[in-house]
Write a structure and sequence with these properties.
The protein is an alpha/beta fold. Among the domains are: 76 residues, lambda repressor-like DNA-binding domains (434 Repressor (Amino-terminal Domain), Orthogonal Bundle), CATH 1.10.260.40; 103 residues, no CATH class. It contains 7 helices and 9 strands. Helix 2 crosses helix 3. The termini are far apart. About 6% of the residues have low confidence.
């Protein structure tokens, strides 16, 4: 067996794509393709890294003949290995859906990309994605973007939950959305320590067309708590009536939710 045949066999044995192996070695996918076709050969430092990734001896990798693993085994090499000199782990399922693997996990030191129905990596893209930077229908990460996003900075088309949350429904330390709940809440309907809204604001300091405040209320229609008594001194029925008068199209669940902790 020649080098190019061994490389292709070992790569497939590990469940790696040419692109995935190229990322580990910091080369182009075209370079891997040429190595596997036998038209070119990698430099010696890349051969050493390949031997570490696949757990085989350098001699058996470059010489014609059978593959010799660096430690005795008869099964495929483990997924843990050196990725371009950095320890990491990658798994990609053979089963696919819409051209994407059902599961792609690519984690380790440095930036590792993962793309799949379920994607877990430093940078992940998938229907369900987890990573430092994640993008997907359900996205969880340090920076997350998706239909539903959870993260330190979360941007969700439907729901965002995070330190800074931006979305149709946003919950966070700083929340910006159509409906926002947070320490600082900004939206059409907002509830928070400092609440700023175009329609209804409820909070310690509230600024909105309808403003319900514990310490300060600034708006066309205001409800201010009695000093020392808190929100319990404000009638939820009166606030709900004002919301229905000013904005009769507002959902009942939202009206009840925003006035749930009033008297």
């Amino acid at each position: 067996m020649k080098f190019h045949d061994k490389l292709q066999l070992l790569r497939r044995e590990r469940g790696l794509s040419q692109e995935g192996l190229a990322e580990m070695l910091h080369v182009s996918r075209q370079a891997i393709s040429k190595w596997e076709s036998g038209s070119t050969y990698p430099e010696i430092d890349k051969i050493v890294t390949l031997s570490e990734i696949f757990g085989v001896t350098v001699d058996s990798l470059i010489k014609d003949g059978p593959i010799e693993y660096s430690h005795a085994r008869t099964t495929a090499p483990p997924q843990f290995g050196y990725m371009g000199g950095r320890m990491g782990y990658e798994y990609k399922s053979k089963r696919t859906l819409w051209g994407l693997p059902l599961v792609h996990v690519n984690v380790g030191f440095g930036f590792r990309r993962a793309r799949g129905i379920v994607a877990i990596g430093t940078i992940s893209q998938g229907f369900i994605s987890l990573g430092l930077l994640s993008m997907g229908l359900l996205s969880v990460g340090l920076l997350s973007f998706g239909l539903i996003a959870l993260g330190t900075l979360a941007i969700g088309l439907l729901l965002a939950l995070g330190g800074v949350a931006i979305g149709a429904l946003a919950l966070g330390g700083v929340a910006i959305g159509l409906v926002a709940f947070g320490g600082l809440a900004i939206g059409m309907f907002s509830t928070g320590g400092l609440s700023i809204a175009s329609h209804v604001a409820v909070g310690g300091h509230a600024h909105g067309h309808i403003a319900v405040g514990q310490e300060l209320a600034n708006g066309a229609r205001t409800f201010l708590a009695t000093p020392g008594e808190g929100f319990g001194s404000i009638s939820s029925a009166e606030v709900q009536g004002a919301i229905r008068e000013e904005f009769p199209w507002v959902w009942n669940w939202l009206t009840r939710w925003m006035t749930a902790f009033l008297g």
